[in-house]
Design goal:
By secondary structure, this protein is mostly beta strands. The protein folds into 5 domains: about 80 residues, Immunoglobulins (Immunoglobulin-like, Sandwich), CATH 2.60.40.10; about 80 residues, Immunoglobulin-like; about 80 residues, Immunoglobulin-like; about 80 residues, Immunoglobulin-like, CATH 2.60.40.10; about 90 residues, Immunoglobulin-like, CATH 2.60.40. It contains no helices and 41 strands. The strands form 12 sheets. The chain has a 5-stranded mixed β-sheet with strand order 3-9-8-5-6, with no helix packed on it. Strands 18-25-24-21-22 form a 5-stranded mixed β-sheet, with no helix packed on it. A 5-stranded mixed β-sheet has the order 34-41-40-36-37, with no helix packed on it. About 25% of the residues are buried.
Length: about 450
């Protein structure tokens, strides 16, 4: 096929065609009991499925157990299989914007009914001074599937080698007094609940010695965490001077009111020589202060500094958080606290009042602020440390960022700052500078986005 051209020249054309051959991709993965990649378990079996590729907009899930097709917008779903069987689970990743909008992946789930409950017991061997125990495997095998001599693993928690075993009792001697976390693990994958574990916590000691740790003080309402560090002990009784009792190993106890409380622990252990021991300690629960403040002006006034009045009770020091990133710590309730906000808005300002026992109370309030952006520089200053006009400073409101430089008559920079709250004190390299007129430049950006540049002279007066 051809065409004529009266000019005698060739027809030239370029056509560019873009083919979008991309498609969505998916990759389904299963997990059981927080074990990623596990696909086998006991009925009823709950399996967590997820897409590992994460490129799809939505998903279709078919679990092959007779339940309806399910749809999700996210890459995760959980499903419980209630019957024994092998299930080929299908996940379809969907993105209708792609050239190939669907991608299908599968994972096989095996649901079995050969659970073997894992149970164990430990018995102290005589005499009472010994650290030897007999360990009895009380696990139950499902009908027709007896355990073998290698179905289990004993782990004694004392850095000795693990012991491969069946159901026959075994004896183990611990190296000395202490608390040992013993575990019996079903390692045989012929059972659907492998590697289930049965834990045994043993407090090994010739004599039971009751002891515990807890902070000596707190702030009401105080939750005391009682860490039981007893040597030996199979059962424990805690009594508190407020009349309550606990039989937990390491309980927590809430003291709602201030006061001094006695905590007593009685430890019992029939496997020890002395059988019982007790200990007690006292803790102090302190009251909390009351934080309160007011502020002015309220309602807000344009470009007026905010003054906070501390009305707290029963506190020794205070921490102010003005809600704009600035904080202040004071040690007197009567301290006048003032803060200049730099931008119009409502700020959540908080006061933390703390007493001598380090017990805090916090109060917060919204602070409405109106700022009209303004910018200027002092024309003169007197650095005589009288607290009045001691520094050459930038005066303004609504300044987001700035660079302020001061020069002597030879063009040397004697002061530079990007902080409006810092000013020049009339010194350079630690030495007082002479009374003179000093040049300055100021480059500032306001919160509204306006950029302002100023320059001029500042007179240092001594």
């Amino acid at each position: 096929m051809g065409s004529s051209n009266p000019s005698g020249r060739c027809n030239e054309a370029l056509v560019k065609i873009a083919f979008n051959l991309s498609g969505v991709r998916g990759g389904v993965k299963a997990g059981i009991n927080n074990v990623d990649g596990d696909t086998t378990g006991c009925v009823p079996l709950t399996v967590n499925f997820r897409d590992t590729v994460l490129l799809a907009k939505s998903y279709e899930w078919l679990f092959a157990d007779g339940t309806p097709l399910q749809f999700t917008s996210g890459p995760d779903i959980s499903h419980t299989f209630n019957s024994v069987g092998n299930y080929r689970v299908r996940m379809v990743a969907v993105d209708s914007s792609k050239c190939y909008p669907r991608d299908t992946t599968y994972v096989n789930i095996i649901v079995r009914a050969d659970r073997a409950p894992v149970l164990a017991a430990a018995n102290k061997l005589p005499p009472c001074e010994s650290n030897s125990y007999s360990f009895v495997n009380q696990s139950v095998a499902p009908p027709g599937k007896p355990f073998s001599s290698t179905s289990f693993l004993w782990m004694f928690g004392d850095n000795t080698p693990d012991v491969v075993a069946g159901t026959a009792p075994i004896t183990h001697q611990f190296p000395g007094p202490g608390t040992y976390n013993v575990r019996l693990v079903l390692t045989d994958t012929n059972y659907c609940n492998a590697p289930d574990t049965f834990p045994l916590t043993l407090r090994v000691s010739p004599n039971v010695v009751a002891r515990f740790e807890t902070p000596p003080s707190g702030c009401a309402p105080y939750t005391a965490v009682l860490n039981n560090t007893s040597l030996g002990g199979s059962t424990f009784t805690w009594t508190f001077s407020d009349g309550t009792v606990s039989n937990e190993v390491s309980p927590t106890k809430i003291f709602s009111k201030p006061g001094q409380y006695t905590i007593k622990l009685v430890a019992f252990d029939n496997n020890t020589c002395n059988l019982v021991d007790s200990t007690s300690t006292a803790i102090v629960v302190s009251g909390i202060p009351t934080a309160a403040f007011t502020f002015s002006p309220n309602p807000p006034e344009e470009n007026i500094i905010t003054t906070f009045s501390n009305l707290s009770e029963n506190a020794t020091h205070y921490v102010w958080d003005f809600g704009d990133g600035a904080t202040l710590q004071t040690f007197s309730r009567d301290t006048v606290v003032k803060h200049q906000y730099k931008k119009t808005g409502t700020y959540t300002s908080c006061l933390v009042a703390i007493n001598e026992f380090n017990c805090p109370d916090t109060v917060c309030a919204p602070i409405p602020i109106i700022i009209n952006p303004l910018l200027d520089v002092v024309s003169a200053f007197t650095p005589n440390n009288d607290g009045v006009n001691d520094k050459a400073v930038v005066i303004g409101y609504g300044i987001e960022k700035m660079t302020f430089r001061i020069y002597n008559r030879w063009g040397q920079v004697v002061f530079e700052s990007a902080d409006q709250d810092q000013g020049w004190d009339g010194k350079f390299k630690g030495k007082n500078q002479p009374m003179d007129a000093y040049g300055y430049t100021l480059d500032a950006v306001m919160f509204g986005g306006e950029r302002i540049q100023k320059s001029g002279n500042i007179t240092l007066v001594r």
